[in-house]
Design goal:
Structural class: alpha+beta
Strand content: 5-15%
Bound molecules: protoporphyrin IX containing FE
Largest sheet: 5 strands, mixed
Shape: globular
CATH class: Mainly Alpha
């Protein structure tokens, strides 16, 4: 956990939000019911405030769209390297999530061509749609399901397996490893998960050396940086990064989207009738409830923002969830509005670490929505969902009922 300047004693947290902490724990483990309210309070009182990461562990939260945007771009002050050296390198090993400048670009470029808009769109009919329908086949005959546990969890894993080019046949094991890597709270257990995951993944790399297929594994197995082949360690670390980066995020994104649609009067009917509206549901959900709600950064130098002095080596949380509800940028920011235009949310961050999988993520959420609306007619929520987590955030469960149908039956859109 981060070494943060300042101790709990000399850190003045407003008593109104002293009981609220924004720690990056697993979303299923902590309910933060006053989450948006707390961010709004910080925003109304100046836009930067000391708060708790975990109880007694200081951090600064930035809430305005301008500040969060600037902080993403200013990597000399809000250092990805310093952050990831503490947050993810100890478990995943070094990855470009924590690299900067040329080193970052060289490593990202090894795989970037599999994530372009055009490439990502090509995956829709070949990977995203078939996987979404295959997962629905598993429960559609029952007439009830937990969309978080039975759809949202498995589908993104199946997609990453397809992108990498490895079979995923043990959902529970994969999903537990993936979640544990970044979100686990016990470092020993995280190390065990990382080791087991590496042992599972690395034999697949060898199978692609000299015999490339059209997948990420082949790019990694035959990839070079500055004329040198990637090491096994570098390849394993990137693969490990991809699972939590691409699986938990999209899982929560799908949950947030279906929760918004099923609790907003008229939304389900409008989206069922007009597929052209569906990409708007994806974008508005990403704005209204970003799965990555707060992004950590450790400062590399002293800085003052809005009169608040933040010393070097402080943990800051860049409040995407607050920036996306900045009233100077978005009308009625707390409402989920299907036809919101313009909708310049920053849920995939900004600058050199802009989400590599943004196009895939959008395609996944859209294909999930198409498949759910087409295959599960009469969809209804059984109970109001509860939102969990802070740094990454979404509903813990989405229990629904629908008209049962036979597996394998796809309506034409
Ligand atoms: C709705 C889903 C998603 C959201 C909201 C999301 C959000 C983000 C954010 C905010 C970052 C920046 C992190 C930082 O600056 O510290 C990021 C980076 C990243 N994301 Fe995503 N992500 C999503 C889905 C995906 C998917 C599906 C993949 C891959 C299959 C992916 C792969 C990555 C990678 C590799 C990075 C690191 C990029 C770099 O450092 O250059 N993400 N994502």
């Amino acid at each position: 956990m981060p070494t943060v300047r300042g101790s709990a004693e000399d850190f003045e947290v407003d008593p109104d939000w002293a009981d609220i902490w924004f720690g990056a724990v697993h979303p299923m483990q902590i309910e933060v019911p006053r989450f948006h309210e707390a961010l709004q309070m910080i925003d109304e009182r100046g836009g930067v405030a000391p708060a708790w990461f975990f109880p007694g562990m200081p951090c600064y939260v930035l809430t305005s769209h301008d500040d969060v945007h600037r902080a993403f771009l200013d990597t000399h002050t809000f250092s990805p390297r310093k952050t990831q050296e503490v947050m993810t390198f100890p478990i995943l090993g070094p990855t470009f999530l924590g690299y900067e400048g040329r080193e970052h670009d060289l490593h990202r470029n090894v795989v970037a061509r599999q994530f372009t808009k055009r490439r990502s769109e090509a995956y829709v009919p070949t990977l995203l749609e078939p996987q979404a329908h295959a997962v629905i086949d598993g429960f559609c005959a029952r007439g009830d399901a937990d969309l978080m546990g039975e759809f949202g969890k498995q589908y993104p894993l199946a997609v990453i397996g397809g992108l990498l080019g490895i079979p995923i046949d043990d959902w529970d094991r994969m999903s537990a490893w993936a979640s544990d890597l970044i979100l686990g709270s016990d470092p020993d257990h995280q190390q065990q998960s990382a080791r087991a995951f590496r042992e599972f993944l690395l034999p697949h790399v060898d199978s692609r050396r000299g015999r490339p297929a059209d997948d990420i594994l082949s790019l990694l197995a035959n990839g070079e940086v500055d004329g040198k082949a990637l090491t096994q360690q570098q390849i394993a670390s990137f693969m490990l990064l991809l699972f939590p980066a691409g699986a938990d995020t999209t899982w929560l994104g799908i949950g947030n989207m279906m929760s918004a649609i099923l609790t907003t009067p008229g939304a389900l009917e409008a989206l069922s009738a007009d597929p052209e509206l569906r990409h708007r549901a994806v974008e508005e959900t990403l704005r209204w409830a970003p799965p990555v709600a707060l992004v950590p950064r450790i400062t590399a130098r002293d800085i003052e923002i809005r009169g608040v002095g933040i010393p070097a080596d402080s943990l800051c949380l860049l409040g995407i969830a607050a920036a996306n509800r900045d009233p100077s940028r978005f009308r009625e920011p707390a409402s989920w509005i299907l036809d919101r235009r313009p909708n310049k949310h920053i849920s995939f961050s900004f600058g050199e670490h802009f989400c590599l999988g943004a196009h895939i993520a959008r395609g996944e959420m859209r294909s999930a929505l198409d498949a759910i609306l087409d295959r599960l007619p009469g969809l209804r929520l059984v109970e109001e969902p509860t939102y969990w987590g802070a740094s990454i955030r979404g509903p813990d469960a989405l229990r629904v009922t629908f008209d049962p149908s036979e597996p394998g039956r796809r309506e034409r859109r």
